[in-house]
Task: inverse folding
């Protein structure tokens, strides 16, 4: 049965590329029509008329994938065509991004872009990549996944984030991370830089693994995302000490931001939004922004995402790119600490 | 005995028509996923997850859990019939399962695997009911240093799978370890052996290697034989049940495999390959006649197959009691719990007893369904070996290519599989055993990761490994087993004198 699904996916893809090739001239003529007047072009916009591929550059079952699969059924109703989620995992997301950038900017191939992988993927010199933020057309953001700092619930040494920071200034502490240059790794580097703490990042394959090690007292500090700590906290396994956002998050109303608690603003969150290849028709972008925003603000969707610890943020277009530029700047700031 | 009452309530939940139906769908789907190489239980559960939103939480999780343990049954089938593991967990089964199939005893291999899987599954569920919550706390004592020690133990036992020549075995093992280097290194962020290929950044996929080295190379060898005009005759399917004298050792292997798989499953972060290696090595060491292993010893199928099923049950304990997923598939299950508004963790048993016990009861039922499906089907599957090779091969090639593609929707993986097929063919010609290659590949990345994690924790000191009771003990056992192997090989009394044919 799975084979069938894969085969149909292949067929759809093949068809998609074929139609994509032939559809080039209408797009060009549409651009011409745009100048003649908005009224005329609005009736001319014949989009979308076939299924849209939404690339998820991460494995099926992960946070981005689940978010995408929750969103697409609502999005399909808004757009009136099927939206097919296609997983292209690997390369810190760049297998999928490369595929996106190789596709025609006709609005039929879109992808999720995630930070910091999107940015570290080209800032890291060993990756030897020519692309950067200007290679994309950014449509709309979907999720802000806030970073948090937590410790074992029965860890007597720290009852709040101040204790932890003070302790870590004098003593080395091990802190979990999901790989070099992951968002969680940046968090401990930022703390070391701005607060003078001595956190040693231990690299894990994922937060589940890191959580096990923290609960087993093998690692001192858990650095993770909101959705990953809410349940263990309710179960009395973890104490969440701080969130690394400008404001508190609804899932953890009692947990202070790092800025509130220690007065130093350290922000660490993952941005997950929708982008297309550079050069999309502005009308198509506008239509997509509208449809995506409606789908993302669907109350049921907001609730389901919130249950997973994910907060919706629908920053659009140029503002969205500005958000990513800010991320880029902070990655560049920490670049030397990576040995890049 | 309070648990028993809850369990009976659980059966009440699980035996409703709808839940029975979802259990049936889950295990059947799981079995097919296991048969299809490439599409593993992780992807299978993840893809079906969104479809379960409309269901009752208990039905949804019964179905998803069914996929998980059902796939362990399915993975065996391709290992035995075409020497290609459908899942990593069934890799070891190729060692003796395929030789059995060549002797026309595929039915016996599949039959004993089915029985073993059932017993392993049931024993681990009983363990889950009786001692699960108590053991789960202990399992947290396993940190990165303990994993490292466990991997070292696994590698030291590999010496037993080296084949005729220790040297060639070492070549294979080191080749496998170096394959594990390829890709983005988690601990330094540096791309190793990437050659500018973005696809290589994520490393080589296990499935590409396993399908190429085991499956394709086997086809190449047979094709070569038939070009020379001596096409191997399809074996006659005989002996669909184990022989009388095989029952005893096989049942003992099943008993040991059950316990072993369950214990390893308890430890979060292990994978289902480790218990199968340990079980196989243990059976070989305990056997009166170790030389039979690799040539069609039924215990060599029974033990590991039991262990991987029992592992599944064990792996659910950290999930249910601590909310910790111990493998990627269990992580998807955890996602399912959360999306249905349930919280796995210490209070799950108190807060949602109906649900937990319903799921546990459904696992008894699901395992029984799988056994009923698999025993008669073993006959049917075994007949596939009688299909003439010229018809069978194109089908196998198609299945492997589609399966490999479906992993990441990437042609690169297909290309890699073809390359490893050719490599595997050459290695077989050079009599380099393939088992060490693939096993060290699986363990290699875990070895490196846990070593670096441990050293970060120990601030760079190697002595740290020996100052912790669990990791110290395991490492000492590993070292002793290594020394023992070397001493006996120097005395020219190698424990293993026969080639493990793969």
Result:
């Amino acid at each position: 049965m799975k084979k069938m699904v894969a085969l149909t996916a292949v067929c759809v893809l093949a068809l998609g590329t074929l139609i994509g090739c032939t559809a080039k001239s209408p797009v060009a003529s549409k651009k011409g029509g745009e100048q003649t007047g908005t009224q005329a072009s609005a009736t001319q916009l014949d989009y979308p008329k076939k299924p849209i591929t939404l690339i998820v550059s991460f494995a099926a079952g992960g946070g981005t994938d689940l978010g995408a699969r929750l969103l697409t059924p609502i999005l399909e109703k808004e757009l009136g065509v099927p939206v097919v989620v296609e997983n292209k995992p690997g390369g810190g997301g760049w297998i999928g991004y490369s595929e996106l950038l190789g596709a025609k900017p006709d609005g039929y191939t879109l992808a999720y872009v995630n930070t910091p992988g999107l940015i570290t993927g080209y800032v890291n010199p060993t990756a030897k990549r020519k692309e950067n933020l200007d290679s994309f057309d950014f449509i709309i953001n979907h999720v802000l996944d806030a970073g948090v700092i937590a410790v074992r619930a029965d860890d007597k040494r720290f009852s709040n984030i101040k204790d932890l920071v003070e302790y870590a200034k004098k003593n080395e502490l091990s802190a979990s991370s999901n790989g070099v240059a992951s968002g969680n790794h940046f968090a401990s580097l930022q703390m070391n830089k701005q607060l003078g703490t001595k956190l040693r990042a231990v690299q894990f394959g994922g937060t589940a693994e890191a959580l096990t090690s923290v609960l087993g007292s093998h690692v001192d500090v858990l650095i993770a995302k909101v959705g990953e700590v809410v349940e263990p906290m309710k179960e009395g396994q973890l104490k969440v000490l701080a969130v690394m956002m400008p404001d508190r998050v609804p899932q953890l109303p009692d947990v202070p931001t790092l800025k509130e608690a220690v007065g130093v603003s350290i922000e660490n969150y993952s941005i997950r939004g929708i982008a297309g290849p550079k050069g999309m028709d502005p009308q198509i972008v506008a239509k997509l922004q509208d449809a995506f925003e409606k789908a993302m603000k669907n109350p049921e969707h907001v609730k389901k995402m919130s249950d997973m610890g994910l907060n919706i943020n629908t920053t659009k277009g140029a503002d969205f790119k500005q958000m990513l530029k800010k991320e880029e700047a902070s990655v560049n700031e920490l670049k030397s600490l990576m040995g890049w | 005995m309070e648990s028993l009452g809850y369990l009976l309530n659980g059966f009440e939940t699980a035996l409703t028509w709808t839940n029975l139906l979802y259990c049936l769908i889950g295990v059947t789907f799981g079995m097919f996923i296991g048969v299809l190489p490439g599409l593993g239980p992780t992807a299978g559960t993840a893809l079906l997850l969104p479809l379960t939103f409309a269901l009752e939480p208990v039905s949804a999780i019964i179905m998803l859990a069914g996929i998980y343990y059902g796939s362990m049954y399915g993975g065996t089938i391709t290992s035995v019939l075409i020497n290609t593991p459908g899942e990593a967990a069934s890799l070891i089964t190729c060692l003796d399962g395929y030789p059995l199939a060549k002797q026309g005893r595929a039915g016996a291999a599949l039959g004993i695997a089915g029985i073993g899987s059932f017993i392993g599954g049931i024993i681990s569920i009983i363990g889950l009911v009786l001692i699960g919550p108590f053991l789960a706390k202990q399992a947290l004592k396993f940190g990165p240093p303990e994993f490292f020690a466990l991997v070292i133990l696994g590698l030291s036992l590999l010496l037993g799978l080296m084949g005729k020549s220790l040297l060639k075995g070492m070549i294979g093992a080191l080749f496998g370890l170096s394959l594990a280097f390829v890709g983005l290194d988690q601990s330094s962020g540096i791309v190793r052996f990437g050659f500018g290929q973005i696809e290589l950044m994520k490393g080589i996929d296990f499935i590409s290697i396993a399908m190429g080295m085991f499956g394709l190379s086997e086809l190449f060898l047979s094709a070569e034989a038939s070009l020379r005009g001596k096409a191997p005759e399809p074996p006659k399917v005989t002996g669909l049940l184990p022989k009388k004298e095989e029952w005893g050792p096989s049942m003992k292997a099943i008993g040991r495999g059950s316990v072993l798989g369950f214990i390893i499953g308890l430890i979060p972060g292990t994978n289902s390959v480790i218990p199968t290696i340990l079980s196989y090595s243990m059976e070989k060491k305990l056997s009166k006649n170790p030389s039979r292993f690799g040539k069609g010893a039924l215990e060599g199928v029974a033990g590991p197959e039991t262990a991987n099923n029992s592992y599944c049950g064990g792996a659910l304990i950290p999930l249910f009691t601590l909310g910790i997923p111990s493998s990627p598939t269990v992580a998807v299950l955890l996602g399912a719990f959360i999306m249905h508004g349930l919280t796995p963790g210490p209070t799950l048993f108190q807060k949602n007893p109906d649900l937990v016990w319903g799921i546990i009861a459904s696992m008894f039922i699901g395992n029984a369904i799988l056994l009923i499906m698999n025993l008669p089907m073993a006959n049917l599957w075994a007949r596939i070996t009688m299909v003439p090779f010229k018809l069978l091969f194109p089908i196998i090639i198609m299945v492997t290519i589609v399966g490999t593609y479906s992993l990441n929707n990437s042609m690169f993986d297909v290309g890699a599989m073809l390359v490893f097929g050719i490599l595997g063919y050459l290695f077989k010609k050079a009599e380099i055993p393939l088992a060490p290659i693939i096993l060290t590949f699986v363990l290699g990345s875990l070895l490196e990761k846990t070593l670096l994690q441990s050293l970060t924790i120990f601030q760079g000191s190697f002595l740290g490994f020996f100052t912790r009771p669990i990791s110290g003990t395991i490492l000492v056992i590993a070292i002793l087993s290594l020394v023992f192997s070397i001493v006996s090989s120097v005395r020219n009394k190698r424990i293993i004198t026969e080639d493990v044919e793969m």
